[in-house]
């Protein structure tokens, strides 16, 4: 369950719509500094947070904090409220994105605390003038069941600025002799990376805490290539291991940071393969002499994984899932050359639920 994206949790939106009618809204005010937002586009979004225990019981009277990731990749509290008796907290924050590019994403995090229970979840919002509500589900854990003592909870009360940069796989595909490929990752394409947290910092098991989104500030188009190879595209992504105080409790969280130069550094890898036909969740074909553009979007599960390691203030290694949002789309263009046997076509299959984020192309005979 911890290795899936927010999509399954978002489906609880229909349940929330009914419960929201029972809420007496409690919204924290947000101060606006005019100079701070001089080069920003402001927008407002309704956010509804459903807080539950692992057994599915709604948690009323829990303190819920709303954080926003700032330009430095730090989490800043922008709201605080309590859940209603139905276990729902509501926020109506004023959010901002750069005027220079309105395709940027705002990364947010909610943290819920009540007694010995705590839960965190990170998610992202795109700018939308329609202000569609966002529904988020937070599952709390029992600290006592995790054998976390009160003394350890308050051991560390500072934020750690430990960051690294790591090449992260965002596309995997294949070519064969006579099959030609080219990819295009445009400005604004969004890479979704899983985040994890643990308590106390420096020990304990890592727990899924949603995702953050990295938006490409620079787009790249590859040259045309062929040959019997599996090919991998990787972008350099910044990761952070942060110690974050939340209501007197210090938690450790590892996540990807959205910067102003994403997409600036990338690398391509390839290794030989046999071009053996394989199966997948969906497929399409290309006749000889034709070209097909494939919309690379990603699915509901993580298609790739990246392992990041930090050395300070303690040795930490975490594996995070990687996926792509559906828009803006990236394009994988595949072309079929000519063969002496005109019955052959190129078949492209999408592995898993990747929606061609992870695909294979090969020749097959068609009767």
Provide an overview of this structure.
- The strands form 6 sheets. Strands 11, 13, 14, 16, 17, 18, 21 and 22 form an 8-stranded antiparallel β-sheet that branches. A 5-stranded antiparallel β-sheet has the order 4-3-7-8-10, with no helix packed on it. Strands 15-12-23-20 form a 4-stranded antiparallel β-sheet, with no helix packed on it.
- It folds into 2 domains: 1-147, Immunoglobulin-like; 149-275 and 300-329, no CATH class.
- It has 3 helices and 25 strands.
- The model is unreliable at 1-33 and 150-159 (pLDDT under 50).
- Helix content is 4%, strand content 51%.
- The chain has helices at 7-10, 13-20, 150-153; strands at 40-44, 47-52, 63-69, 75-82, 88-91, 94-98, 105-114, 117-126, 134-139, 141-142, 162-175, 179-185, 190-198, 207-215, 220-221, 229-246, 249-257, 266-272, 282-286, 291-296, 304-310, 316-324, 330-336, 344-350, 359-365.
List the helices and strands and how they pair.
Elements: H1 7-10, H2 13-20, E1 40-44, E2 47-52, E3 63-69, E4 75-82, E5 88-91, E6 94-98, E7 105-114, E8 117-126, E9 134-139, E10 141-142, H3 150-153, E11 162-175, E12 179-185, E13 190-198, E14 207-215, E15 220-221, E16 229-246, E17 249-257, E18 266-272, E19 282-286, E20 291-296, E21 304-310, E22 316-324, E23 330-336, E24 344-350, E25 359-365
Parallel strand pairs: 2-9
Antiparallel strand pairs: 1-6, 2-5, 3-4, 3-7, 7-8, 8-10, 11-16, 12-15, 12-23, 13-14, 13-17, 13-22, 16-17, 16-18, 19-24, 20-23, 21-22, 24-25
């Amino acid at each position: 369950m911890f290795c899936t994206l927010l999509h399954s949790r978002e489906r609880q939106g229909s349940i929330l719509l009914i419960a929201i009618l029972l809420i007496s809204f409690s919204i924290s005010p947000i101060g606006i500094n005019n100079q701070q937002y001089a080069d920003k586009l402001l927008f407002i979004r309704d956010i509804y947070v459903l807080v539950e225990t692992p057994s599915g019981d709604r948690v009323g009277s829990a303190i819920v904090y709303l954080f926003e990731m700032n330009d430095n990749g730090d989490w800043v509290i922008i709201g605080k409220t309590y859940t209603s008796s139905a276990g729902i907290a509501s926020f109506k924050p004023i959010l901002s994105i750069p005027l220079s590019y309105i395709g940027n994403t705002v990364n947010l995090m909610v943290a819920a605390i009540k007694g010995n229970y705590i839960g965190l979840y990170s998610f992202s919002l795109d700018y939308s003038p329609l202000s569609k509500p966002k529904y988020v589900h937070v599952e709390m854990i029992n600290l006592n069941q995790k054998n976390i003592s009160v003394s350890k909870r308050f051991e560390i009360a500072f934020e750690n600025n430990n960051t690294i940069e790591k090449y992260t796989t965002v596309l995997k595909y294949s070519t064969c002799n006579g099959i030609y490929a080219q990819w295009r990752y445009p400005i604004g394409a969004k890479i979704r990376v899983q985040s994890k947290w643990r308590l106390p910092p420096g020990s304990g098991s890592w727990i899924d805490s949603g995702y953050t989104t990295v938006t490409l500030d620079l787009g790249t188009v590859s040259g045309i290539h062929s040959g019997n190879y599996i090919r991998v595209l990787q972008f350099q992504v910044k990761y952070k291991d942060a110690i974050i105080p939340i209501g007197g409790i210090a938690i450790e969280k590892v996540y990807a940071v959205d910067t102003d130069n994403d997409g600036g550094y990338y690398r391509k890898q390839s290794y030989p393969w046999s071009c053996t036909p394989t199966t997948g969740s969906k497929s399409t074909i290309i006749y000889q002499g034709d070209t097909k553009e494939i919309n690379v979007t990603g699915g509901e599960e993580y298609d790739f994984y990246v392992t990041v390691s930090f050395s300070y203030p303690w040795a930490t290694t975490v594996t995070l899932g990687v996926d792509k949002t559906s828009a803006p789309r990236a394009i994988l263009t595949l072309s079929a050359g000519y063969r002496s046997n005109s019955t052959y076509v190129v078949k492209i299959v999408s592995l898993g639920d990747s929606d061609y984020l992870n695909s294979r192309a090969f020749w097959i005979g068609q009767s």
